[in-house]
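agent: user wants the structure for ATP-binding cassette subfamily B protein from Kribbella kalugense. delegating to structure tool.
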Amino acid sequence: MNQLRVLWRASPVWSAVALALTVTEAAVRTLLMVGIGQFVGSLPASASARTWRWFLVVAVLLLAGPILQSSLAAVTARCTTAYLVHVFDLVAEVGVHPRGIGHLDTPDSASRIRAVVDATRDWSFVTGAGAIWLIIGPRLAGLGAIAVLLPWRWWVPLAVAASFLLVSRVFMSWISLAFDKLLETTGDARRRASYLRSLLTRTESAKEVRLFGLTDWLSDVYRSTWYEAMTELWRERRSGLGPVLLACSVMALTVGGAFALIGLDVTAGTVSLAGAVTMAQAILRLQNFGVLGDAGTALARSTSTLRALANVRQELGLPAIGPAAAQAESSRSTHAAAEVRLDGVSFGYPSRATQALSNLTLQIPAGQSIAIVGVNGAGKSTLIKLLCGLYEPDQGTVRVDGADPAVDEAARRRVAVIFQDFVRYHLPLRDNVVLGTATDDVLQQSLTDAGGLALLERHGWDTVLSTEYDGGTDLSGGQWQRVALARALAAVAGGAGVLVLDEPTAALDVRAEAALFERFLEVTRGVTTILVSHRLSSVRHADRIVVLASGGEGIVEDGSHDELMRLDGRYAEMFGLQARRFAQ
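agent: tool returned. relaying tokens verbatim.
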């Protein structure tokens, strides 16, 4: 059972202590059941010494029970903490392994990953982590009840226990099936419903939803879409109710028959009062083999989530419940500019019929600044993602200082990128510039070179860049651009040899972008720099400009700005069109 294996792997010592306490508590429950029976049976003797002895036994056992339960609760908390840390580490590995993002571009795979991640955040998963001891303890106490009843009629406790087990198995299968189906229901309808719900609740969409009066319409569409997504799940739940009701009927008849037999034996005088009380308790204790309320439901959901997580990890080439093996780090370490080579690279996205890049060959000498331009769909961003190792090419090779960034961690770290949709972390300014440790000099210099010194003077390093936190603040688009650029410059200070700007300044006007790029090329002189932009005036000062044709046809022009203008080809045509538009 994965649940026990993960628990033992996460915390073997505390799990062993919890198991010992659980066994002891089950033994105390069994002895208490016998003790109460003997105490009640001795009452007609008018408080004899035997009565007082059994009274003391019952009192001690009643006192021991809460002590053991409290101790088990404390130990369970330690086990649960270690368990959740281990599982959350497994979930985190799903997000970063494999290193590329190809599996996240597949809707089915991405949806199942999101479903598992969301399930691990649910309260039922958190409570289910410690519910296993709430299941094992009563089950062991149930075994004690069977031992008490065996000398009477051996087949009665087995039949009653079997009926409760039947109910438990059928009910938990029903619950697990419903929850598994929920995790697997990741089709377009459910994804669309989740998106529509987010439009009703997100801050980003709040203004337009209210101004355009979309609340009622979105609510109606969300409701109908959610019904469409959940219809199959509800059908599965209804179809599973029949076996559950049948199992409950069998259990009721079996338990009723057992009590009837006890009554007949008491009437016949073959069972004493003490025996009858003990056996009645034992029959009731056998319900511990049945459904154990919220603990059982939480454990079922936790088990289903863990099973789904294990399946996702195995599909990604990771161990099911253990951490991935640490990858050997390259001993190469340098702060020099890196050389970039792409030889015969072809790549296509699974969702597209045509290739994004076809037989592309490009060499960038160390220390050169190069601009990559072209119309939408020419493959500019795809080229950058291949260079970062986020995808592996279908054909050809990508090398950074001779190493493959798709498999070599050291090569990946040599590439620093700021994308157009860079992350705006809800963290202090300091952490937005460097996610990790860095000297104050590196932080100060990076932000200064990015033109963001005014931000520091106004807000300070420790201000959280989000209005969702007390004392936090938000930045304008241009201010965020400078923070992102400072992040890239700090990466260079940390050893990156290739710096890529993939249209991160799209939110700026043309003059601000041109000024920022000129400043950027100045402060990064000597670093291999790749600029991607639609605005050709912003990249004219790069050492070299590469023009990509649309449709994945590859490089059609390559040279400096002046050379390409004299060539009077595609670049000159695009530059002239943009120049006339801005002049107007």
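agent: one observation worth passing along. The first strand starts at residue 340 and ends at 347.
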